[in-house]
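ok so I'm stuck.
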Amino acid sequence: MDGLEQKQFAEYQQAIIHAKQEIGRVIVGLNSVIDQVMTAILCNGHVLLEGVPGLGKTMLVHSIGQVFDLKFTRIQFTPDLMPADITGTNILMEDTNGRRYFQFQPGPLFGQIVLADEINRATAKTQSALLEAMQERSITIAGETRYLEQPFFVLATQNPLELEGTYPLPEAQLDRFFFKVKVGYPSFEELRDILLKTTIGEEASLTKMFDGDALLQLQALVRQMPVSHEVLTYAARIILATHPHAEANITAVKDYVRYGASPRGGQTLILAGKAKAFMEGRFTVSFADVRAVALPALRHRILLNFEGEATEQDMDQLIHEIIAKVPESV
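replied:
not stuck anymore, here's the structure
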């Protein structure tokens, strides 16, 4: 990097730190979740947030929308929600002369940060409409393609406990999420701070740190960060090690895995590693960066076989074992 790029790099890196501090004024006890969501945003990726109700997932997404000065929309998914309810539809209108015409009424997908609340409550048809927009960044209605305003992110939530009346996302569609982030319970001290901040009747106003154009520039800067051949090779070995017929010969993978991670998982490891290095003020991606992002990048991209499902294998533990047995160099 030349001097100008290094100065720009440092300015953006400081702005990201301040953005995380702003979000921390509202969100207590989810520091690792905030880091992972911010990492995905820097990589122009979508996030699936999994956790029981009441842990602050919706507030987190809303706060991120405020800090990034992006248009925030929310979709509450229900079994009777139809694709047109989220994409929009053509409405018959009438002008002052009595002439009728169709006018497109955009749906909530025409935001920039879209909260898809309880995505697994929608039917497959509506889920597909959302996931198509996530992949293509566009929506086709009545033969006309309408492009979504960039940057565009979907931050979806799902409840892992209450499964009655839900429609789990197919594995192939899960792969379109950049990260799957687990939102856990707060500690005692964090819970005490949450109770204090949320019961005093005051609502914090967050400072806007980025607009859409600045975020697009930041995403481009992150992608330009260099990655060594050794780190690329390491990421590729991790992806191959998730496959049951790979040469890595990891017993747990052979016994419990039906399908390993896709090449998109490898892309996620590298891009997320770049974003993590950027947020920590470094110019290159390390082996440790790849390991640090492996859980959210891979936990939804590895499919267990019948034996793995029957014995309730822990996916995070399986990924930890893979990382422990894949060497940095051969």
